[in-house]
Amino acid sequence: MTDATGDGSQSGPMLAADGTPLKKSLARALRMQKMRALMLIAPLLLFVLVTFIAPIADMLFRSVENQIVSDTIPNTTAVLEEWDGEGLPPEAAFEAAYYDIFLAAERKEHTKLGTRLNYELTGASSLFRKSGRGLDDIGEVYQDQFKDLDRDWDEAEPWAELMGDPAWLSAQAAWTKGERQPAFALRDGVSDILPKTAREYAVFARYQQTEENKSPLKEEPWTAVHTALYEDLKAGDLSGYTGPRAEMLKAADALVDSPDFETITFQAGFEDIDEDWLAPDIWRTIKLYSSSYTSGYFLNSVDMQLTPDGPEARPENERIYMLLFQRTLFMSLVITFSCILLGYPVAYILSNLPSRTANLLMILVLLPFWTSLLVRTSAWKVMLQQQGVINDVLVWLGLVADDARLAMINNQFGTIVAMTHILLPFMILPMFSVMSTIPHSYVRAAKSLGATNWTTFWRVYFPQSVPGIGAGSILVFILSIGYYITPEIVGGTTGTFISNRIAYHISSSLNWGLAAALGAILLAVVLLLYWAYDKIVGIDNVKLG
Amino acid sequence: MNDVVLTPVGKKPLSFTLPVLAAAGGFAGIFVGAANGSVLLGILIGAVVMAVIGFLAAEMLGEAQEKPVRWGLIVLFGIAGYLFGGLPGAVVGLLFGWFFGWFAYWIAFGRYRAKLLPYLTSGQVLWHYGFRVICGAIFVFLITPIIVVMPLSFNAENFFTFTPEMLRFDPAGYSLRHYRDFLTNPEWTRAVKNSLLVAPVATIISVSLGTLAAIGLSQSHVPGKRAIMAILISPMIVPLIISATGMYFFYSKIGLQGEYIGIVLAHAVLGIPFVIITVTATLVGFDRSLTRAAANMGADPVTTFFRVQMPLILPGVISGGLFAFITSFDEVVVVLFVGSSEWQTLPWQMFTGLREQISPTILAAATILVGISILLLASVEMLRRRSERLRGMSPS
Questions:
Q1: B212 and A365 in contact by Cβ < 8 A?
Q2: How far apart are CA A80 and CA A75, in angstroms?
């Protein structure tokens, strides 16, 4: 502050020492301060965003991601787009599926697709695995006949000469292993006379070059190319063709036109592999899941399924996730209530005892809090099992017969007891910090005014301790709803939480989309509670011991 | 405080002493009786024995003979226990003798009222002690599981349960074999080594970044403070399984999955909320005029930080660091997903051991970990007091 108001002659804004207006100078100082604070926070914020928030966002994205269907069988999904879902799809769909699955099988990706579709339609996995092996049968019909006509049809070089650009041919011939392969190019005009063959051969050649690092000049084309050739020869007229290998091609054309040339429709070929291909179910499922993003995982995680007529509840006997969510909520509530029940007296006595004694007893609360989670869980395993300490003591006392020991572990009881013990400090600490601020004089005043013990507690003390209960309960509930380790070890099959199901889908069933959807729902619940906690208690008021 | 007598005490009439003691004896008799075959007989004998003791103590011998009576009871009960149940019975008997000797005098001479306000009704006195018993039971619930693990870790057999030898206090029932296994088995030693490689580095990252951010957050006028705080605390709130799977996918994408760096980063981020919470709590009591005074005397911000602010908040920083350390040292869910078999940590090893229930070596590890956590707890407690002293608060 300066002598700006020294004498009345000076008018205008107040000035700082350096002559700038005070308002401006203060604003600049404030801005500087803000900047400095943000600079201090920035590294950590960035760190948390990259190592923590980004991974979670990435995982949540998986719950709607569904590119695998349209990536693996793009042509099929394009054809099915036109299909109305009634009866069987057109022959074009079978044809597209033939080429798509053929390539996917070469890439070993058809099983992944099968696994994906199996989440929606049981049996899809084995259907696709079978088809990967069986599709060669369709092509071999044509390959064998062409080969019998001319052995060159099963050789690498004649095919390359027929399909490849001459410049590419010479470049490829000069190629040696270790160098970059010259990119395959189709010969001018070949895709006009043999469109499908050219397409399939290009797919084959590029696959050999990029994924196998082999020269198309050395590799015989796979059977899908022969199938495509048959399709082209049947449809087109090659009489005017004068390019390389013209005779060989014309002979093949003549063979295809002859009446005793053996053919097979795509639909019949698929039927030979598995009759399930002639059931509309698989086609409907593919059509339903052909979009890049799907709500299917989320529907699955609330026991519904996507059908052509929109979302529908699953049959009664297939509903498991709602049950699991309910159980998780129920058990978390029970745990929270047991924590309140056990924590309240302890917090009360700790805040009302002389501080020396209270500090000593506080150690009994803090020691479990500092003890490794696994130690506590293993301790409960030791305590609760059939040959465990509690059962031993009960048998020794004669309260329980030796052959009728209580089953206290691998069920809900075990999970609730162990988790109540583990989370109890999280209830006691916030309660304690609230209760130790309640003045004793209120209680004494109430009593001197004639209130009974109960009235004093219920009308005077308890209402003041409610914020502690609230803070502790939300914290315990948030922590318990997402617990994994303890239910996994002492929960058996009936005492497990939704977290255990998520872990199962991640590491055993590999249905990552479903795991991500279940995780997203759990996370939403937790964040809602977190928000409530922030509103009610304030996150900067969390205390740790 | 302990010696203040608020209410004068005196001998109680026999019509009060005898029924109360008989009831207590009967209650204890239920268990002794059940253990030996007949509950009814147990209640009867217990009640009679306690009534006799009460009569002897109150009427015949009086307070003058208290010491010899109580010692006599301890010995008598101990011998009786030995006859009934061998060595463990003797231990229980000695405890019973000690307790009932004290209890008989406590009741008979009205000592239970000494520390209470004189105007309390007997119902209030009863509730006062009843409440204490309930709280005691809850404390027992809190601490027993941790205590029980310790003797079991000296088991000579490969069991998770007390063997008859252990209950007879037979030295043959005890051994250090699980500790030997823990210290020599390469699986365990490697796990310990991995944990010790990961935890300190993760702690250093979270403490250094966390302290800086906490200082930034403690300044006034931080835009979006609440949102920033919410993000920084979130690793503690988000269920670990979600963090773990998210990190698993993301770290696999960028090639950190199964790598040392990946585990360290994951653990560092999990430890950050604890550092933020403890350091911000310490900064609440920090007198900001000290930094201004330092600046006034010509110190640059860096000097001010290291010579003025840091020494004052150091206890908070260290206890935040200890929290971060124990978080990493104890973390298993994220390691299960982000780690690899090459980087198995101690909690991982314990988790798989627990699931497959291989050997009580887990209990030896657990006992050692309890020892470590007692050490950590003691140091955090010491630091907290020191911090409060430094900030001019009286340590509670």
A1: no
A2: 9
In chain A, the residue whose alpha carbon lies closest to the alpha carbon of B352 is A489
Structural domain tally of chain B? Answer: 2
Same structural domain for residues B112 and B206?
no
| Shared domain check, B204 and B103 | no
Considering only CB atoms, A41 lies closest to which of B31, B217, B268, namely B217
Contact call for B249 and A47, based on CB within 8 A: no
- Find the CATH number of the domain harbouring B265: 1.10.3720.10
Contact B240 A545 (CB under 8 A): no
Task: Give residues 295 to 324 of A whose Cβ lies within 8 Å of B.
Answer: none
Q: Which of A26, A38, A40, A444 to mutate to test the interface with B (most CBs of B within 10 A)?
A: A40
Q: Is residue A297's pLDDT more than 70? A: yes
- The third-level CATH classification (topology) of the domain covering A321-541 is MetI-like fold (1.10.3720)
> How many CB pairs lie under 8 A apart between chains A and B?
282
What would the pLDDT profile of A441-482 be if each residue is shown by its tens digit? Answer: 999 899 899 888 889 999 999 999 998 898 889 889 999 999
- Judged by CB atoms closer than 8 Å, whether chains meet at B35 and A519 is answered as no
Residues B219 and B323 occupy one common structural domain: yes
User: Is pLDDT at A240 greater than 50 in this prediction?
Assistant: yes
Do A37 and B219 lie within an 8 Å CB cutoff? yes
The pLDDT > 70 percentage for chain A reads: 97
Q: What is the mean pLDDT of each run of 10 residues along chain B (396 residues)?
A: 66 84 88 79 88 84 81 89 82 89 85 81 88 94 90 82 77 86 90 93 95 88 86 92 93 90 94 90 82 89 87 86 89 91 89 79 88 86 78 54
Q: Does A388 touch chain B (CB under 8 A)?
A: yes
Residue in A539, A541, A543 to test binding to B, most B beta-carbons within 10 Å = A539
Give the count of beta carbons closer than 10 Å to the beta carbon of residue B367: 21
Q: Which residue of B has its CA nearest to A366?
A: B377
Task: Give A11's pLDDT tier (boundaries 50, 70, 90).
Answer: low
Is the minimum CB–CB distance between A503 and chain B shorter than 8 Å? yes
Q: Is the Cβ pair A481, B272 closer than 8 Å?
A: no
Chain A residues within 8 A of B39 when measuring between CB atoms: 398
A374 with B350: Cβ contact below 8 A:
yes
The band of A544, judged by pLDDT with boundaries at 50, 70 and 90, is: low
pLDDT 10s digits, B248-292: 999 999 998 889 999 999 999 999 998 998 888 888 778 888 888
- Name the residue range of residue B263's domain: 186-390
Select the residue of A41, A382, A499 nearest B149 (Cβ to Cβ): A382
Cβ distance of A382 and B145 shorter than 8 Å: yes
Which of B141, B268, B377 has its CB closest to that of A370? Answer: B377
Determine what percent of chain A is predicted with pLDDT higher than 90.
Answer: 22
Residues B196 and B310 in one domain: yes
* A364 touches B at CB < 8 Å: yes
Query: Is there a contact between B385 and A375 (Cβ–Cβ < 8 Å)?
Result: no
ipTM over 0.95: no
